[in-house]
Design brief:
The protein starts with 13 loop residues before the first helix and ends with a strand. Helix content is 33%, strand content 18%. The protein is α+β, with helices and mostly antiparallel strands and 958 residues long. The strands form ten sheets. Strands 24, 25, 26, 27, 28 and 29 form a six-stranded mixed β-sheet that branches. The protein is globular and about 100 Å long. It is built from 30 helices and 35 strands. It binds one RNA strand of 86 nucleotides through α10, β9, β13, α14 and β29.
Length: 958
RNA sequence: GCCCGAGUGGCGAAAUGGCAGACGCGACGGACUCAAAAUCCGUUGCCUGAAAGGGUGUGUGGGUUCGACUCCCACCUCGGGCACCA
């Protein structure tokens, strides 16, 4: 940017913007402008909240990456900031803060390679991110910027874990209750143990029984075990080839004892409460799919190895079940395999074990399977049907076994055709189905090209041989699937063969990691090797110091040896003595010898509840003061879930983070710790900023900033390059940083550009070239209010022309509504229009009327707070614009004396006429018919019909 | 394969049943300048026309309506999610 002599001293450019921005950022800090008062607790200022509505807005918890920010990161932060500032001017008590999700893998990987402690690395990353964000001028309450790695924070993460550990899910009441109440029910005999009576159990057996009911429990679960790295890996850390993302080591599926969260107990509430949330439908749908609730029935088929239980969503097709298929991992496979089939089954099993999960789920793969040699009995027909194994049946869903109904299920159909198994129709498809497939209607499935799924009249579905004998199941003639399902379920239930059942895709949540940089579990193991919560007075369980952060590396192909987490290296920390309380008897065991849990929590833990800590960040007595929680997050009326008023973030967290947080929040609600049933009442997904990237002829990416366009082609160093489009990132060499924008334009221009690019929820390409448009707008606006040479205001208290005043109020009306609806791009367009109108006035009159200047600056201030604050001050205002009331449109100035009405002839606009506001439809009709252009367009034709939309339009149909 | 979402100028976009393309970029023309940058003013969907004007136009094809970017049906393309879930 040139600063030569010809440039006026007080022109609004990057140099002046930098000066103004630093000045106001310092002032906001020192005056603590954005601190939000609480009703109670350490940050209580009850007098300041009186008479104000509250608004809690939240951005998704960022990970403090070492790479720093690019221009895509702050998009959502700017959006929430603009909204928060607008609402603050509208009288709301706005709480807006940003903390750091600072545990996690990258800092640990960095520590492993450099030896720098993850804490040091994390802290310097946070400092850098704070610096970059401060330059943006975000109106955050700095007191509330917590980090998950602070002991004062993770003390409460551990406390919440203990709450989850110390509760169980009462399926009768559909909610969590303290584990002590379960123990009381067992010991008093109100609740049966389902096995050995409580009184006859050993201490260890009692603990095990209770542990099996806890919401946080230890379970053997299949995990991604990577011996080369000495740790288990999250699914997203495993490549499609089944190797580790880092180091390319083999990864094995194996069972390991892990902390697990009983999220499945909440499946129905997590599903049903979605209806009460103000979230994008697409996200609700993703959560619904993830929970995957299926209604159906469990049915037991007799076999030589005992009953085989299956889950089916189509009990109504039971008469068409002509064979069964078990997953290769099913526990009954061995017993069902006959001597003659042993070799074939064993070879199939070993082949199946070698197929990776991704291959197994490939859609092009042909179905394979093997006959066990055994037969089971179809409970409705009494017929013997063969039992097969096949890897298209998954052990992890339902019961790991299915009844195969080839006529009604495409997968079973394909399998039956391949292995020549019988196919019996249980429903007659409609004629249209046969027509679509080009075959004649027939109940003989031999002619069918596919299975039939849909509504059709039931056939071949009675087990009384046509006698109408009492107690028989007769579906024949029924036309509705729901009726047939109900009849079948009732029949099965009456005979104890099966019952209606619901299955979920959702799995319990694997909660431990063999890592260092995470929250230690507040758990020790007692002399019975049973987990016991660390007493509250001993929290936090601080992460012990280590000299080496590497997990123990093993032979990359060693599937057998158990992982040894880094914390195990501190034997002095692991083995300790502690005053613990026996969970069953309640008696205190002083100085008990205990062993600490050496796994750590996953990164999700802190982000599951951080929003609550923003509200009461310095409270040492409780994780959040109940009154503070009720004020900021409590339900607004009967049936309202409560929760954050606006939560903005990317879709990538649609399922995991948002589901885990909802689960923890519901547990806290059940236990009476929070008044809100949901953490995030309104969710808004911001789009992404993407960017073009360029490759040369060798396929190498070249720096996007140095590519030039000529006639629609792109060149780097005069060599043609090809253009592609994707996320900003190092590998595509297309990163643009906020710092570059601050230097070239200033933060206000950058903020304005990001908000003007399009709707907040849409992704759009970054174009540095376009930013100048917003800078020019601010420059023109500045010039309308301030003399570019002297810096003095050019505002006059003289009369404002009526037309300009009307334009102003139309703008106020539109900008107000746009900002309320998060439509910042159109709000900005309206401000530019107003400023363009003002420029014409200033060109003629030489100054801006104060009645226009002040509201214009106020409307701009949520978007460009530094510039607006500066202008406010230069206009002679000594109050803080942040808390000045947002302008209100005068309804009288929104309507003008005349309106322009388009006139259509046969739906095409042929003329426009100016009519007095409030003209009657008849008057408009008369005006239109006498209009010269309309008469020409009609060409003498007689109008057959005239449509008048009052004050909007006239359409003449001839 | 199934389920969502989106397709509008050279580009980002606006209009959600009633004047398509607001606002911004770019491009073109002009002012200022020795010159350039910056800044300012004007033009800018496409076709046709000297102009006035006319025609045409919101992925494609149908439909509903006096009137459709907007609603309905089918298809095409792109993006996202799920994926042998019984």
């Amino acid at each position: 940017m040139s600063t030569s002599d010809s440039t006026p001293k007080e022109r609004y450019n990057a140099r002046l913007a930098a000066k103004i921005e630093a000045k106001w950022q310092d002032r906001w800090d020192s005056q603590r402008t954005f601190e939000a008062p609480n009703p109670a607790g350490p940050l209580a200022e009850p007098d300041k909240i009186a008479g104000r509505q509250k608004l809690f807005i939240l951005d998704m918890f960022p990970y403090p990456s070492g790479a720093g920010l690019h221009v895509g990161h702050p998009l959502g932060y700017i959006g929430t900031d603009v909204f928060g500032r607008f609402k603050r001017m509208s009288g709301f008590n706005v709480l807006h803060a940003l903390g750091y999700d600072s545990f996690g893998l990258p800092a640990e990987q960095h520590a492993i390679t450099t030896g720098v402690h993850p804490r040091e690395n994390t802290e310097s990353n946070i400092a850098n991110m704070r610096r970059q964000l401060r330059r943006l001028g975000l109106a955050h309450d700095a007191r509330r910027s917590v980090s998950t790695t602070d002991e004062g924070f993770y003390r409460w993460t551990q406390w919440i874990f203990v709450q989850v550990f110390d509760s169980w899910f009462d399926t009768d009441l559909g909610r969590a209750r303290p584990i002590s109440e379960l123990i009381a029910e067992f010991s008093s005999g109100i609740r049966a143990t389902g096995g050995t009576p409580w009184t006859e159990m050993s201490s260890r057996e009692r603990k095990q029984l209770v542990n099996d009911h806890r919401l946080a429990y230890l379970a053997d679960a299949p995990v991604n075990w990577c011996p080369g790295l000495g740790t288990i890996l999250a699914n997203e850390e495993v490549t499609a080839e089944g190797r580790s993302d880092i180091g390319n080591y083999p990864v094995f599926k194996r069972n390991m004892r892990q902390w697990t969260m009983r999220i499945t107990a909440y499946a129905d509430r997590l599903l049903n409460d979605l209806d009460r949330l103000d979230w994008p439908e697409s996200i609700k749908l993703m959560q619904r799919n993830w929970i995957g609730r299926s209604e159906g029935a469990r049915v037991r088929f007799a076999s030589p190895a005992g009953d085989i239980e299956v889950f089916t969503t189509r009990p109504d097709t039971l008469f068409g079940a002509t064979f069964m298929v078990l997953s290769p991992e099913h526990p009954m496979v061995d017993e069902l395999t006959t001597t003659s089939q042993r070799v074939a089954i064993d070879s199939y099993l070993s082949a199946a074990a070698r197929v990776t999960d991704t291959d197994r789920q490939s859609d092009t793969r042909e179905k394979t399977g093997e006959f066990t040699g055994s037969y089971a009995v179809n409970p409705v027909t009494g017929e013997e049907i063969p039992v097969w194994i096949a890897d298209y049946v998954l052990m992890g869903y339902g019961t790991g076994a299915i009844m195969a109904v080839p006529s009604g299920d495409e997968r079973d159909f394909a399998f039956a055709r391949k292995y020549d198994l019988s196919i019996i129709a249980t429903q007659m498809p409609p004629d249209s189905w046969f027509a679509d497939h080009g075959i004649a209607p027939s109940v003989d499935c031999a002619t069918w090209p596919n299975a039939f799924v849909g509504e059709g009249t039931y056939v071949n579905s009675r087990n009384d041989a046509g006698t109408s004998a009492a107690g028989a199941l007769v579906l024949d003639g029924i036309t509705e699937m729901a009726v047939a399902k109900r009849c079948t379920n009732e029949w099965l239930e009456a005979r104890g063969i099966g019952e209606a059942a619901i299955t979920y895709k959702l799995r319990d949540w694997l909660f431990s990691r063999q890592r260092y940089w995470g929250e230690p579990f507040p758990i020790v193991y007692d002399h019975d090797e049973m987990p016991v919560a660390v007493p509250d007075t001993l929290l936090p369980v601080a992460l012990p110091e280590l000299s080496d952060f590497k997990p123990q590396a093993l032979d990359p192909n060693d599937e057998i040896t158990d992982p040894i987490p880094p914390l195990a290296r501190r034997a002095d920390w692991v083995h300790t003595t502690m005053d613990i309380t026996d969970p069953i008897t309640g008696e205190t065991l002083s100085g008990a010898k205990v062993r600490r849990e050496i796994n750590v929590m996953p990164q999700w833990a802190g982000s599951c509840w951080y929003e609550l800590r923003y509200l009461d960040p310095t409270n040492d007595a409780v994780f959040i003061d109940p009154e503070v929680e009720r004020y900021w997050m409590g339900p607004k009326h009967d049936g309202h879930t409560g929760g954050v008023d606006l939560y903005v973030g990317g879709v990538e967290h649609a399922v995991l983070h948002l589901l885990y947080s909802r689960f923890w929040h519901k547990v806290l609600f059940d236990l009476g710790h929070v008044s809100s049933e949901e953490p995030f009442h309104r969710l808004y997904n911001q789009g992404y900023i993407q960017a073009h990237a360029y490759r040369d002829e060798r396929g190498q990416t070249v720096p996007a900033a140095d590519v030039r366009e000529r006639d629609g082609n792109y060149f780097y160093d005069d060599q043609p390059v090809s253009r592609e489009y994707g996320k900003m990132g190092k590998s595509l060499k297309n990163i643009v940083t906020p710092d570059e924008m601050y230097d070239e334009f200033g933060a206000d221009t950058f903020r304005l550009y990001e908000m003007s690019m399009g709707p907040l929820d849409q992704s759009r390409p970054w174009n540095t070239r376009d930013v100048v448009g917003m800078q020019r707008f601010l420059q023109r606006l500045w010039r309308n209010l301030v003399d570019e040479d002297t810096g003095l205001p050019t505002v006059s208290d003289s009369e404002c022309p009526d037309a300009l005043l009307r334009t102003l109020h139309v703008s106020i009306d539109g900008v107000q509504r746009d900002m309320d609806g998060l439509r910042f791009n159109t709000a900005i367009a309206k401000l530019i229009e107003l400023n363009n109108a003002l420029t014409k006035h200033v060109d003629a009159a030489g100054s801006t009327p104060r009645v226009v200047a002040e509201p214009l600056v106020q409307m701009l201030s949520p978007l460009c707070p530094h510039l607006a604050s500066e202008l406010w001050q230069r206009l002679g205002r000594s109050d803080e614009i942040t808390y000045s009331p947002f302008p209100i449109a005068d309804p009288n100035l929104l309507v003008s004396d005349t309106v322009e009405i388009p006139v259509q002839v046969n739906g095409k606009v042929r003329s426009r006429l100016t009519a007095p506001t409030g003209s009657s439809d008849d008057q408009l009709t008369a005006l239109a018919l006498s209009d010269e252009k309309v008469r020409i367009a009609l060409a003498g034709a007689e109008p057959r019909k005239i449509i008048v939309v009052s004050s909007r339009l006239v359409n003449i149909v001839a």
